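Report of the visiting student (M.T.), summer placement. My assignment was to run the structure pipeline on a short list of targets and document each run. The first record concerns 4-oxalocrotonate tautomerase domain-containing protein.
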Amino acid sequence: MPRITLTISGASNDELTRRVAHELGQLTASSLDKPYNATMLMVDYFPREDWFISGRSLQELGKNSFRLEVTVTDETNTREEKARYHRDAFDLLTKLIGDIHPHSNIHIIDCRASAYGYGGETQEHRYQHAMASV
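After the run finished, the structure tokens were exported:
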């Protein structure tokens, strides 16, 4: 169950939000082999004049940026899968948002199964119950 938090520079844009939510959710589910129906995605916007890279605002630079955080259960994705996801997500967001500063970033957060979950149960609990049924 990935939790995706995406911050995009600029003013809120409903059309972009819906498109990003759908396409990034699909990409995350397929690239990281996660169930799409258990994917949570939150999109927020941050003013370009208040977002700085190397001491200059994105507004001054004439660029856009994003910060993408994806939380997954530790040890459920390989190094190669994460590297591919970084490339694919960066390319997708560059295409959808446009004029992306190269210092836009992606952070995949690996959480221990005993500390991460949904619906009042940890991923470790789900795993143990699934193994007991085998």
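Residues 10 and 47 are 5 Å apart (CA to CA). The mean pLDDT is 94. I thank the supervising group for their guidance throughout the placement.
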